[in-house]
Amino acid sequence: MTKILNNIGIIDIKTKVNEDMELLSVLDIYFEKKRGYIVKMPEKGSSVVACLSGGQDSVTNIGILMEEFGLHVYPFFISRGQSNYKYEKASADFFDEFYKKRYPKLYNDYLEINVPTPGTEYKDLLREAKKKVDSILLRHNISYPARNPIIFLTGMEYGYSLMAKDVKINTIFASHLSSDSSYHCSQTWTRLMNLLMCQILNDYSWQFISIPIETAFGNYYDKDVFIKWAYDHDIPIHKARTCVKKFDLECGDCPTCWDRRRGYKEAGVKDPTQYKFPMSEKYPTYYDHEKEEKAEQS
Ligand SMILES: [Zn+2]
Prior knowledge:
Structural class: alpha/beta
Number of strands: 5
Largest sheet: 5 strands, parallel
Pathway: Purine metabolism; 7-cyano-7-deazaguanine biosynthesis
Helix content: 25-40%
Order of helices and strands: HEHEHEHHEHEHHH
Catalytic activity: 7-carboxy-7-carbaguanine + NH4(+) + 2 ATP = 7-cyano-7-carbaguanine + 2 AMP + 2 diphosphate + 2 H(+)
Bound molecules: zinc ion
Family: Belongs to the QueC family.
Organism: Candidatus Amesbacteria bacterium RIFCSPLOWO2_01_FULL_48_25
Number of helices: 9
Number of domains: 2
CATH topology of the largest domain: Rossmann fold
EC number: 6.3.4.20
């Protein structure tokens, strides 16, 4: 069986450039002191909020929350101005139906929330700014810096709002993995965001958790574990959308597609996805703007 907790994968957190072990340790100590634990899985039967992006990781994560932990899940989908919106939305709709049938007592319809991020008024400027600093070491790991904080603060606010329907929620789940390289996908960021959530709600029972990288659960693993778990449980995650391009098929050759293909290889699971292009031998990078622009036009 695929282990969801106490599973250390092959990537060592200490080698990750987007993690700050000193800061994480300070935050862990603070939570321990403040509430007696760092984070813990909510009790079976509790209600939680989870992001449904339409990608394989968020889809698998929601399955795990229901199947392994018996949680009532309230997913949210952010319409943020993504270029592959219609494919991500189609994936969210597909799994909405799938989970509703399989877990009718635990799954709730997802809520689509319209929060453009980055702001459309400066998105082009931000792209240009990113190109200017691409050659500077680690600048790439900044991504769209406010995007994930905005997405997950919105999810938290949605969870909080459900109190109006007498649904008590104090845990929100992301599904970041050990190979995610942005600062706003890290375990350090997750803990920092958790602190922010607690402070602005004046409620230290609030938790923000990404199970695959949750060090308090003895975890730090990657896509292969999620792919294997989904395969074990007959969840057709190959129908989820990974590619950030506008093609109807997954391109197979952008960094996110490359990661997806690597995940299947490492999981030892045959990848049923149909791709538009063959897999590069080398990891494709976001720096190759010319190639990216040509691919967008084709
Ligand atoms: Zn792609």
